[in-house]
Amino acid sequence: MSTYIAPVRDMLFAMNELAGLDEIATLPGYEEATPDLVEAILDEAGKFATEVLAPINASGDRQGNRWVDGEVFTAEGFGDAYRTFCETGWNGMPAATEFGGQGLPITVSTAVLEMWKSANMSFSLCQMLTLGAVEAIAHHGSDTLKATFLPAMVEGRWTGTMNLTEPQAGSDLAAVRSRAEPREDGSYAISGTKIFITWGEHDMAENIVHLVLARLPDAPPGVKGISLFVAPKFLVNADGSLGARNDLVCASIEHKMGIHASPTAVMAFGEKEGAIGYLVGEPNRGLEYMFTMMNHARLNVGLEGVAISERAYQQALGYARERIQGRIIGDRSGDKKPILHHPHGRRMLMDRKVRTEATRALAYYVAGCMDRAKASADSETRAANEARLELLTPVVKGWCTEVAQGVTWNGIQVHGGMGFIEETGACQHMRDARITTIYEGTTAIQANDLIGRKVAREGGHAMRSLIEEMSASRATLEAHADVQLRKIGAAVGRSIQALTEATDWLLTAYEPRPQQAAAGAVPFLKLTGTVVGGWLMARLALSAHARMDADDAEFRGAKLVSARYFAEHVLPEVQALRDAVVGGAESVLALPETLF
After folding, report:
1. Does residue 355 sit in helix, strand or coil?
2. CA of 362: how far to CAs of 261, 288, 355, 470, 504, in Å?
3. Is the pLDDT of residue 328 over 80?
4. Is 536 inside any structural domain?
5. Terminal Cα distance for the chain, rounded
6. Strand-pair partners of 191
7. Burial class (CB in 10 A: 0-12, 13-18, 19+), 452
8. Is the pLDDT score of 327 beyond 80?
9. Is 19 within 8 Å of 107 (Cβ atoms)?
10. What confidence tens digit (pLDDT) does each residue in 462-482 have?
11. Which residues pair with 336 in a beta bridge?
């Protein structure tokens, strides 16, 4: 089994050429993100991922967690790794300095988070949920809530969760039934059961801060009647010390297909006098507030797709370099050579490598949009980047995780029969990746968000702006002196045309024929991700070609090959996706229910 090595050069290249790290470092509050500092951060994070997190990934998968009378005991080594993680300052790196974080650009933290997720996805989920809870409280909580909870959460002494769904609700949060009764002291007594709560109970931190959706007694029905509450595992005294155990308990943990070392809890609130909780913001705006955390989680789950793809690719590549497997077709020496020498083996590895690079390109590009939307001094720049961020958030979540399914599945194929054996480690990556298309909103939910709120109801303005920008890049490529770049540009141009046609059809069909539009929602999401991924890969190729005489010419040459492969092997898929969107709805909806 190979170990994980952070692809720092690839990360820095995408950060600089797509996210625009140099520009981001000039934004207010980000001035310390110099190239030397960023590279040093990535190098040290890579060492931590390789030396501390990766070694306990497979063992954590085998051991899982133990639930005993409401307490959860994590896999061997996780507690020690978490303490070291917090002591060295990694937990709070993306958080604001006012709460004890380092306040670095999201672009930088995105690359570091990718490393944690590649090295040990189960471990990384604890920090992901904590940081999401920090964001929600920081944006919507009172000064008292911020002062009480955020410093300890940023430091890592306390972790965070989000408690959304319930047994009868699933993804339909309008069906949430948990109750919050006002108490005389201004707090609330919360009762109800929540399911699928990632890191809802564990033994790594002093306290666990639960963000809980519940209804007040006079709340209106549906999503407009949901409020958000903070309910800690242990109540917090006025001096900041921990007090009595709150009336909430982990009733059980799930036995899952993957991410075995990440406890997924069933949480029971208020089985006695009621779990004490504190209202976040205004009543009945809980779902709106929780979207701050959910959007944070959606982008980070998309990043999980990137990360687990990278890890599966590295695993397969390591095996293909070493495993001797027969004679090579056309090789007259007759020598038996490793899998990497076989054309089909190379095709599988090249496909995994390039699709992973494309998802990273998209995730880092969107991280740059987040930084500019947050910190740019120019209001128009902020608005433009916010619009691009809104448009592409469901694409990052949906497309990057869908790509990961194929990358991890083919990672097993590279191993052949040995890939089907758990000891090789390839199976774990496929099992871990499978949840990414489901939680924080399934691919279909992301796709419906994209075609509805982000395209049709917005009038297509954000999408047309993106298409216009991509078309400008295509024109530059098609006019280039280099033949390879011109070919890449032509392929990008054809894909942009397919996206344009699908978008035009969607804008026409969405209001009068919403079911037909929804029937092609997932293909439209995949179409968007593939086209934008191809555009970004082409931009990387253009940048690589511009400095081909630099010291890293071999690395830059590889970027040209990657972009060419994407143009020749992946972008042709776009036409089929376009056809499914524009002409495939009838066959989706035609079959009578009785014939299924």
Report:
1. helix
2. 28, 26, 11, 13, 23
3. no
4. yes
5. 43
6. 179
7. middle
8. no
9. yes
10. 999 999 999 999 999 999 999
11. 327
In a domain, 573, yes or no: yes
Query: What span, in angstroms and rounded, lies between the C-alpha atoms of 558 and 326?
Result: 27
Report the pLDDT value the prediction gives residue 549, as an integer from 0 to 100.
75
Q: Which of the following is catalytic: 440, 458, 501, 573? A: 440
Question: How do residues 269-326 score in pLDDT, each as one tens digit?
Answer: 999 989 999 999 999 999 888 887 778 889 999 999 999 999 999 999 998 888 877 7
441: left (phi over 0), alpha (psi -120 to 50) or beta: left
Better-predicted residue by pLDDT, 547 or 7: 7
Q: Are strands 324-327 and 227-232 parallel, antiparallel or unpaired?
A: unpaired
Residue 117 near residue 308, CB atoms below 8 Å: yes
d(CA 433, CA 222): 32
Local structure of 448: helix, strand or coil: helix
The total of structural domains in the chain comes to: 1
Whether residue 447 contacts residue 522, with contact meaning beta carbons closer than 8 Å, is answered with: yes
| CA distances (Å), origin 288, targets 385, 497, 594 | 21, 36, 39
User: Is 248 domain-assigned?
Assistant: no
Nearest to 450 by CA among 529, 363, 385: 529
At residue 463, the pLDDT reads 98
pLDDT, mean of residues 523-539: 98
What count of other Cβ atoms lies within 10 Å of the Cβ of residue 583?
Answer: 11
Q: Which pLDDT value is given to residue 345?
A: 83
Owning domain of residue 591:
446-596
Reply yes or no on whether 501 is catalytic: no
Cβ neighbours of residue 425 under 8 Å, at least 6 residues apart? 1, 2, 58, 315
Instruction: Please report the pLDDT score of residue 92 as a whole number.
Output: 87
Nearest to 410 by CA among 421, 432, 426, 425: 426
Residue type, 85: F
The pTM (predicted TM-score) of the whole model is: 0.96
The residues pairing with 213 across neighbouring beta strands, listed in sequence order, are: 228
Alpha-carbon dihedral sign for residues 568, 570, 576, 577: negative
CA 409: distance to chain centroid? 19
Residue 460 has pLDDT above 80, yes or no: yes
Sign of CA dihedral 84, 87, 89, 95: positive
Count Cα neighbours of 267 within 13 Å in the Cβ-side half-sphere: 33
DSSP, residue by residue, 461-505: HHHHHHHHHHHHHHHHHHT-SSHHHHHHHHHHHHHHHHHHHHHHH
The predicted pLDDT at position 1 comes to 64
Per-residue model confidence as pLDDT tens digits over 219-275: 999 889 999 999 999 999 999 999 999 999 999 999 999 999 999 999 999 999 899
Buried-exposed string 470-484: b where 16+ CB fall within 10 A, e elsewhere: bbebbeebeebeeeb
DSSP per position, 61-76: HHH--EEETTEEEPPT
Check residue 548 and give its pLDDT: 79
Which token pair is 481? 């002196």
Whether residue 290 is contained in a domain is answered as no
